[in-house]
Here is the input.
Amino acid sequence: MLLGLTLVSACTTEFSPNAKIDAKTVTFNDFESGGGWSNDPSRNDPGLVEKGLAHSGQYALKVDKDHEFSLTYAMALGKMREAKFQKLHLEAWAFMPSDQATGVVGLQVLSPDNSKQIFSDDIKLRDAVKTYGEWVFVSKDITLPDSVAPAQQLRLYLWRADAGDKVLLDDVKLSILD
Here is the structure.
């Protein structure tokens, strides 16, 4: 099951003041380059990013009626930080042109072979974004269960969630809080 997370905390077109990169940052991407985000190479789908309607730069992640999932960030938990951690902070800028947009920012922890979901969190963008046609800052603190292990894989992505309109995501940052 694919799940997401966000909370609205601001509504401007300026860059997030919280987007500073520090030692606790796991990933930050404005999608001007790959930076650890990829897709199944067999799909090689250029439609997974939108050019020209980004929050910053030129590119943003995109899902729409023809693209169920965006590019995905994947990393073993143990490669994020050697010491075990339980709290993450996710922030991003979301763009939904209409009430037909229903995207979800998903975070999952999977078994090392990716065959079993260990954990996920879920907040739908439709619930978080109430202003259409402009970029909205969304964020959430996430607490991982004690059962997570260093070899397990964290996945972060944008999911269409039956959207009838496109959904964009840009300037995504994931940080360790503890």
Q: What stands out?
A: Helices lie at 77-80, 125-128.
